[in-house]
Amino acid sequence: MQTDPQGSASFSAESYFATQPAPASLDNDRQRVRAFVRRQSEQGNKVVLVTSGGTTVPLERNMVRFLDNFSAGTRGATSAEYFLKAGYAVIFMHRQFSLQPFSRHYSHSTNPFLDFLEIEHKPAPNESLSTTPEITVTPEKREDLLSVLTAYKKVHRDGTMLTLSFVTVNDYLWLLRGVSEELSEMGRDAMYYLAAAVSDFFLPRQKMSEHKIQSGKGSLHIEMDQVPKILKPMVDEWTREGFIVSFKLETDPQLLLPKCRQALERYGHQVVIGNDLNRRKFEVVFVSRIAPKKDPAHPAATNIDDDTFTESWLRLSEKDTHTREIEEDIVNELVRRHRTWMNNGR
Ligand code: 9Z3
């Protein structure tokens, strides 16, 4: 663990996992992932890990208060559906109670399913007999429901989705490491799609108050530590040759591209998808590296200084925002790039 000039600590991934407790469900989750990966591998399916939703940061061990991240899990849940449609098996690792593939279409706040069910009273053949009323779907909602339900049932029948959940940033980090290590068995056939909104700061267990923080002493000062940059060990150690896609969220448009490039430079993975908080539903940018140029004098060596980045924007037109989802285009583009990546490695 290192201490910066202000005295706050920054954990390496190694010191983090050596000092912070693993969630109780970790071993069981790993076993489920192992069995799922084995089955998909036998069936010749590619697998994508989709992380989704926000992480919490508890302030007390007996937790009453926590900090949260804004994400509803729309990006992750929507993308998971398009990956399934593209023939991938999906490990859907999401924040408990955030949106999930398929059921997201009928979220209680935007499209409550009870609103499009109707009770139909069938006339009794004999007045002395009473019949149980039937429940039907409002005609104008039937077509949409049928298409969602058909895709949902198929995924269940085929067993191509495994769902895991996390709540805290600690749960997330342990689970991400565990799932990545299991999935790395698939080598280049695995994709990692990191859409969860992960807290940058946390309170280590050792600094947490055991009981509810009491008021009465005026204002509250909490100093948080930095969450370790886990993309580095993820790329270098946990995922053998997997195709890794991370998301970068910013609110200042000036920072978006530099931050995406910086992430690629630091971690050396395949794609960073940049998105602005307020424009994320209709605009994203793909940033990746152009293969380093060879030095003609030393054909075996690559010149790091020559590295450059490519950036391509995906945008939905004003008209399309009401009828299409940008995740469809994101997933199609990634499936194409993943195929090239797999072919290049073989
Ligand atoms: C994203 O940028 C996602 O696209 C959103 C999706 C969280 C914006 P919603 O769930 O939102 O559809 O409401 N995710 C990654 C955010 C993040 O924490 N990235 C880390 C960073 O920026 C790196 S992995 O440092």
UniProtKB/TrEMBL annotation:
Molecular-function GO terms, alphabetical: catalytic activity
Parts forming coiled coils: none
Domain DNA/pantothenate metabolism flavoprotein C-terminal: 46-101, 188-280
Superkingdom of source: Eukaryota
GO biological process, one term: coenzyme A biosynthetic process
Similarity field: Belongs to the PPC synthetase family.
Name by which UniProt lists this protein: DFP-domain-containing protein
